[in-house]
Structure formats: structure tokens, C-alpha cells
Amino acid sequence: MEVIHIGTQYFQKVCTNGHQISDRSTINSDPQPEEYCEECGSKVITTCPTCRIPILGHKTIDGVITLGYITPVPKYCRHCSNPYPWTSLILESAVELLSLDEDLPDSDKLLIKTAIPDLLVDTPKTKLAEAKFKKGFSNASKLVKDSLYNLLVDVLSESVKKTIFPN
Description:
This protein is α+β, with helices and mostly antiparallel strands. The protein is built from five helices and four strands. Strand 1 and strand 2 form a beta hairpin.
């Protein structure tokens, strides 16, 4: 059987804070090179820290030219489904922010906390998560509201952003 080469699969280099270094890296013999982000100084990874499967990047197809496309940084590993370090940081930071609002009832904190993972991805549970988030969020202090907005605005889909942060 003849193997037909139809393109090249590249991989991503991403720092543990989620800054994409490259989406067109080739995997070398050291899947976790000693490299650090020029933007924040964090370690750069090329594979999932849990299962060591490479983070997929740009894929070329022979005979097709793509201009200006940058592969998005994924939130979860396609192989083991664990959150990447940058996703875990967002989830942990959101929980810590909620703890700063001493007047927010624990029930509202729990609504927000359990909703956030389903707001980061589009699933059948996303609409329910939007409702839970909005219910708890409405009672949060201005500081927590502003901080959660700034934390989440870049990682939510456009439709989720419009629903939970209409202004």
C-alpha cells in the first residue's frame, strides 16, 4: 500500500500562561524544550503535561495556500481531555476571585464556579451554564464582576460573551 503525503502537520509552542509562541513548530527529540515566553517568562510547552501528546498547530495541505491564519490555542487536550495549564489558571483564578466577595452567598459562588467550565466550550450544557452564571453573577460585587469579565472575556465564545456580558 502506497502512503500519500498530502501536507504537513505542525505543532504549537505555548507558554503555560497561554501565549502562543508558534503554531508551526516541528517536534524534535525533546518534546519539552527549555524555552521561556518572552511576554511573561513562563515555561513553553509543546505537549500536554498530562499525556505528552503534542499540541496540534497549523496543517498545510499540498497545493493550498493559506494566508494570515493562526491556529487557535486549545483549551483542553484532544487526547486526555484535561485542561491545559492556561485553562486551569483561568478556572483557578475565577474561584479565587469569587472568594474575595465576602457578601456573595455561597450558593451564588457555587453557581458561578460550576458554570465557568461550560462557558469556555460550546456544548449542550453551555446555555444552562449561561443561566447559572448570570443568576450568580447578578449578586456579585462590582470588583468581582469587573475582574471576572477581564479574566473571561478573551476565552469565551462570541455568543456566550453577548449573553452574559451584554454591555
